[in-house]
Specification:
By secondary structure, this protein is an alpha/beta fold. The chain contains 5 helices and 11 strands, in the order ββαβααβββαβαββββ.
Length: 224
């Protein structure tokens, strides 16, 4: 059995969070602070932030750290090569798969359109029957066991304060096809923090921050 600590939506507050021990740390996006409302400037400052974050995460009580970025993490969209180079001790999954400690991971920073932030699908994608989202999620391998995506699937830990489910229906469609999936880790929708089990698959909204961007939610440790 492998223990996986799950967290997302840290928003640069990693030093205010309690980090329980586990075999693997999985981070599901919105990891970095935002410094401005200008995308390029924000990305440049985030790039400067990455080496210290790499060192902080490297020294936590985990054998491996798996990370996807999210809509607040402009640096990974604007400077993808430099981002990976700045974090050599971390498994950054940018819409790709990797086997880690015998588990088959797929990680992606993408999510449905939200004010044209980083890694958004196009705003008109739903009206065209989701061609971009459908093609993106088709790349998730059938053998995936651990799925890490910043934006959640439709109807799974995706409910906003008003009660609407805002996750991606095409991601949900693909997840329903993944017969070997043991764990899905998501973030983005802070109010849906928690875990549910559907069939044999555990699904976690791992948001550390609440709607007020206060890191009040504990890291959930999942056995797989």
């Amino acid at each position: 059995m492998t223990t996986i600590a799950t967290v997302s939506d840290v928003h640069g507050l990693e030093r205010q969070i309690h980090w329980p021990p586990a075999d693997i740390l999985v981070m599901a996006g919105d990891i970095l602070p935002n410094f401005s409302r200008m995308e390029e400037l924000d990305a440049e400052k985030q790039l400067q932030y990455l080496p210290s974050l790499n060192n902080f995460l490297r020294d936590l009580p985990y054998q491996e750290v798996v990370l996807v970025f999210g809509n607040h993490d402009w640096v990974a969209e604007i400077f993808p090569v430099e981002t990976k180079a700045a974090m050599p001790d971390i498994h950054i999954l940018a819409h790709e798969s990797k086997e880690i400690m015998g588990l088959k991971f797929f990680g992606s920073p993408y999510q449905s359109w939200f004010w044209d932030w980083a890694f958004n699908f196009p705003q008109n994608d739903p009206g065209l029957d989701y061609p971009v989202a459908r093609a993106a999620w088709a790349k998730i391998p059938d053998e995936t066991e651990i799925l890490v995506v910043h934006g959640p699937p439709k109807g799974i830990v995706d409910k906003v304060m008003g009660g609407a489910n805002v996750g991606c229906p095409m991601l949900r469609e693909r997840i329903d096809q993944l017969k070997k999936l043991r764990l899905g880790v998501y973030g983005h929708i802070h109010p849906s923090y928690g875990m549910i089990k559907i069939g044999e698959t555990k699904h976690v909204n791992a948001s550390a921050c609440n709607e007020s961007y206060q890191p009040v939610n504990r890291i959930q440790v999942i056995n797989v």
